[in-house]
Write a structure and sequence with these properties.
The complex is a heterotrimer. Chain A is about 70% helix and about 0% strand. Chain A is an all-alpha fold. By secondary structure, chain B is of the alpha+beta class. Chain B has one domain: 2-Layer Sandwich (Alpha-Beta Plaits), CATH 3.30.70.20. In chain B, about 25% of the residues lie in helices and about 20% in strands. Chain B starts with a helix and ends in a 7-residue tail after the last strand. By secondary structure, chain C is mostly helical. Helix content of chain C is about 50%, strand content about 0%. Chain C has helices at about 1-25, 50-75, 90-95, 105-110, 115-120, 130-135, 145-150, 155-165, 180-185, 195, 210-215, and one strand spanning about 35. Chain C is elongated and about 115 Å long. Classes of the chains: A mainly alpha, B alpha+beta, C mainly alpha. Chains A and C meet through helix 5, helix 7, helix 8, helix 11 and helix 12 of A and helix 1, strand 1 and helix 2 of C. Strand 1 (about 380-385) of chain A pairs parallel with strand 1 (about 35) of chain C, so a sheet runs across the interface.
Chain lengths: ~375, ~240, ~220
């Protein structure tokens, strides 16, 4: 490749230290936060048309949450020492808080699920045998529900949603801050990075919820609420617009400053990252879905077309968010710390951090979600008949 | 000066140098704190790579990683420059890909951990496996390191790397196992030209005097890491 | 990686279309069904206590948190935090490692290499440490006896590491030689090594015979 740089150099120790697993870590934790916030919106703000996706989104959130640390464990040189991050957290590090934030959020989401499905658990606790004992344990021995306790549960769920939304923003914004805190990497160290992470987490969370809602409706042979889909699309459009705008603003800012860093960023965007940045993140994952979503929002379309286009765009948007994570994480490391060169790097296939392991990490939460969906979401909801 | 007197002069000075070395040996003891100073004089570096080889042997540095390495900056007459460090210098520098007539100046730059006072690597370690010892040097506790790689990302000098043999981050610690015993780091010991100088509690007064006269500076001072490693007469463009 | 990304984009579009074919649900089924609480045997019509399960849950969480912090206290490594936010023993461990590159004094110790050291002091290399040319050799305790073989096999390459003419190598620091030109100038035979003319340790003395040859060559 013809280089525009006068010399081509990086320090001999420089390699891509954070590879696919660290791409998946913000991707999955973004999915956790995005699906959680999508689900919690209906409870926190009383948005009735989003009510149908409350439970599916919550279950999706916990499925991803259970595997959010898996890529980290695969990445760590010493996974057996991972607990040190809880035992001796070094508080000046942007990474040290993750353990506690993650655990706190995990507890919050599990508690919220427990409240959301408590009527179903109580209903099953009255059955005999081992199954009854199991559900009695889950219900912590409280096997009766009254109208008052149901309303109490709803209040707790609302409170948890209100706490949980900022908590989820902290979780994913925090992951962005881990990157933003690396002072000498201009591709990362921007105050916008955590914001972009939060926005794109919302994009992939909403997109995943749209897909999940369609699949779930098909499997349970129920209709998709067109108000719900339109509501999700509206949020998705807004968040996507902000996400793309900020992503491009950040680049524009770097370009306009024309520091010596810009010459290697340009080199990278024209070379190693051309396909994943311009192709996947900007055009296929950004502009095309934005146009599709604008079409279904601002032009009168049939319910069927709206569902179809929302469903297609959701796939593209998940790709957009994945490519954005990739471009941030990998791109930042391709740039040499000397500002004099861009590295070549190829993903390995096998190994702890290779392609195969990466596919497994992505599939694991989906498989868990399928299991949890079967367990939690297929039974009809138990609730007072009067509401 | 006659041949004889010159030779005896050399013998006397080298004997004096040796007794100096022994004195510093006697000074060092367990539990005491010392002041360590390291100065690199690129104008004396001949690029022989003895330091890189000695470091690898002294510290069991894995292949393709470097606790210290040598770069060559070739400044051209048109204000541009070329930087090279083939395998840290081990593969030999050869001649740069420039017409010799265009070369204004070429200089070898030894690189190692800068032991910053305000270091980003210590700040980002999530578990306290990178720490500043009582003497101000930055160490790695390879028994406590979880291997997240955050410090490697944050070091602006590329001094850190994954040591897959110890399963921990690794970097130069100015041969702490040597200097705490009153010896100089291995790279300083083998440097044939005194391009690397080391001082324990002021044993090499030249370093302090060069620093006081303001002839030295740290690498990339603009980023505020406050490196302790002093470079004498460093070119502005070296990074 | 470009091809991989093209494949990934293709896969994404293809999977969206294929799965949509299976999962398009529009127009099928009605709204989700639900079971009414009222009339069920677990429905407590006139209960006044609404939050007994919450109290139990909070208790469990509090107990777990207290337990976790109690366990955490036991897991902190010994000597951690004694002198700062690190394992104080780690500093001792890193200073305890054995040095491998010894000083020239230790080469002269016990008069093993006293002659060479004294000889070196006479020449231009008097400031240079033995191991700069000889490597760590067996002089390190770790490598035991290897040095017996290696220390004497210095080749021309060893000299040229410092004395080969090289861009960037400062001429005022080391004399440098372009071997081809050197051979032409002094007309020595290609089998001859540097030390055949330049003596080894007391290196300012050039063999007389070499000086003669230079005159003869010119």
């Amino acid at each position: 490749m013809e280089t525009i740089l006068q010399t081509y150099y990086f320090y001999p120790n420089e390699t891509v230290v954070w590879s696919l697993m660290i791409v998946l870590y913000p991707f999955i934790s973004g999915m956790v936060a995005g699906t959680f916030i999508t689900g919690a919106l209906s409870k926190a703000f009383g948005i009735a048309y989003l009510e149908p996706i409350f439970k599916p989104a919550l279950v999706a959130s916990v499925s991803f949450l259970c595997f959010a640390t898996l890529p980290l464990m695969l990445h760590l040189e010493q996974p057996t020492r991972a607990a040190y991050i809880f035992i001796t957290p070094h508080l000046t590090s942007a990474m040290s808080g993750f353990g506690y934030i993650y655990m706190g959020f995990l507890v919050l989401v599990i508690v919220m699920i427990w409240y959301a499905f408590r009527p179903n658990f109580v209903a099953k606790a009255s059955s005999g045998g081992l199954k009854g004992v199991f559900y009695k344990l889950i219900c912590l021995g409280v096997t009766k529900i009254s109208k008052a306790s149901y309303e109490h549960d709803q209040k707790v769920i609302k409170a948890l949603a209100v706490i949980g939304i900022p908590f989820a923003c902290i979780l994913t914004g925090y992951v962005g801050f881990v990157f933003a805190a690396v002072k000498t990497n201009m591709w990362w160290s921007s105050a916008l990075t955590p914001v972009v992470f939060i926005l794109s987490a919302m994009v992939c969370g909403l997109a995943f919820t749209i897909i999940l809602y369609h699949v779930h409706a098909k499997l349970t042979k129920t209709a998709v609420s067109s108000d719900c889909v339109r509501g999700l699309v509206r949020y998705l459009w807004g968040f996507l617009l902000f996400a793309i705008t900020l992503e491009l603003l950040e680049l524009l800012h770097l370009a306009y400053y024309e520091t010596d860093y810009w010459s290697i960023i340009r080199e990278m965007l024209e070379g190693n990252l051309a396909m994943s940045y311009w192709g996947a993140q900007v055009v296929v994952g950004g502009v095309i879905p934005l146009l599709l979503l604008s079409y279904i929002l601002f032009v009168n379309v049939s319910e069927r077309t709206r569902s179809m286009l929302a469903y297609f765009s959701s796939f593209l948007l998940i790709l957009q968010v994945f490519s954005m994570r990739w471009n941030v994480v990998i791109g930042g490391q391709l740039l040499s710390k000397t500002y004099l060169g861009v590295q070549e790097w190829n993903l390995e296939i096998g190994g702890r951090e290779g392609l195969v392991a990466g596919v497994m990490v992505v599939l694991a939460p989906v498989v868990l979600l399928a299991i949890l969906r079967k367990w939690l979401l297929t039974d009809p909801e138990v609730r007072p008949g009067s509401i | 000066m006659t041949e004889l007197s010159r030779r005896s002069f050399i013998v006397t000075t080298s004997a004096a140098a040796m007794s100096c070395g022994l004195a510093s040996y006697a000074l060092a003891g367990a539990g005491e704190e010392h002041t360590y100073e390291f100065m690199v004089d690129p104008s004396k570096c001949i690029g022989c790579i003895h330091c890189v080889k000695a470091c690898i042997l002294e510290n069991d540095v894995p292949e393709h990683n470097f606790r210290t390495w040598i770069e060559r900056y070739t400044f051209k007459k048109d204000q541009t420059f070329i930087v090279e460090s083939p395998n840290g210098g081990l593969d030999g520098f050869g001649e740069p890909d420039v017409d010799p007539k265009d070369i204004k100046k070429a200089v070898f730059i030894p690189k190692l951990c800068n032991q910053c006072d305000n270091t980003p690597c210590l700040q980002v370690c999530p578990v306290g496996a990178t720490y500043m010892g009582p003497e101000g040097l930055i160490h790695i506790d390879s028994e406590h390191c979880i291997g997240c790689g955050y410090c490697i990302q944050s070091c602006p000098y590329g001094a850190r790397f994954y040591n897959h043999e110890t399963g921990a981050a690794d970097k130069c610690d100015w041969c702490y196992h040597r200097i705490s015993k009153g010896m100089v780091p291995a790279c300083v010991e083998v440097c044939p030209t005194e391009a690397r100088r080391f001082s324990i509690d002021g044993s090499d007064p030249l370093i302090a005097s060069e620093k006081n006269e303001g002839n030295t500076r740290g690498l990339r001072q603009s980023i505020g890491t406050e490196p302790k490693l002093a470079y004498l007469g460093l070119e502005e463009k070296v990074r | 990686m470009d091809a991989a990304w093209a494949i990934l984009m293709g896969l994404t579009i293809a999977s969206s279309i294929v799965t949509y074919y299976f999962f398009r649900p529009v127009g099928e089924g009605g709204p989700p069904k639900f079971v009414s609480l009222e009339g069920k045997d677990f429905y407590d019509r006139d209960a006044s206590i609404a939050s007994s399960h919450t109290k139990r849950l909070v208790l469990i969480i509090v107990v777990l948190i207290v337990l976790a912090f109690a366990v955490k206290g036991f897991l902190v490594p010994k000597s951690f935090g004694q002198d700062g936010f690190y394992r104080a023993d780690a500093l001792v461990e890193s200073s305890d490692r054995e040095p491998r590159h010894m000083t020239s004094e230790s080469c002269g110790n016990g008069s093993c290499h006293k002659y060479e050291i004294d000889d070196l002091a006479l020449g231009l290399h008097f400031k240079i440490s033995c191991i700069s040319c000889h490597g760590a050799m067996g002089h390190s305790r770790t490598y035991g006896d290897v040095h017996a073989e290696d220390a004497t096999t210095m080749q021309n390459g060893t000299c040229l590491e410092c004395h080969q003419k090289l861009t960037g190598r400062p001429a005022n620091v080391v004399p440098q030689v372009d071997m081809a030109a050197h051979q032409r100038e002094y007309a020595y035979e290609s089998g001859e090594g540097c030390i055949d003319c330049h003596s080894k340790h007391n290196l300012m003395l050039i063999d007389e015979n070499a000086a003669d040859r230079k005159e003869g060559g010119q």
